[in-house]
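Subgroup meeting minutes
Present: P.N., E.W., G.H.
Scribe: E.W.

1. P.N. recapped why we're keeping a running log of single-chain structure predictions: easier to compare across weeks, and new members can see raw inputs and outputs side by side.
2. G.H. added today's entry (95 aa).
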Amino acid sequence: MENINRLLEELGHGEKGIRDGTLSYGMDDGDDIYMRSWSGNIICPHKTSIVFIKLKLFCDKVYPEKLPTICFHSGINMTCANHEIGVMKLMRRKV
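Output recorded in log:
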């Protein structure tokens, strides 16, 4: 139940947009009671070759202990993303 409360909090943040509105995300299916499948959008800064990035997120049952799976649907050139399938390699940082 703790992860559902956390996901509800995340949903509220994503629907409002983050800071300047360049990042937004929300659930794919409003009827998904486990809140696992999400979509996101990133509006890139001016003067970049990419204007808009679309991505999919999947939260496991044990989120936030296990990081979500992130898959870019837009072509992206990042060292942390698999260029062939768009899946991002996430690692937790030590604080």
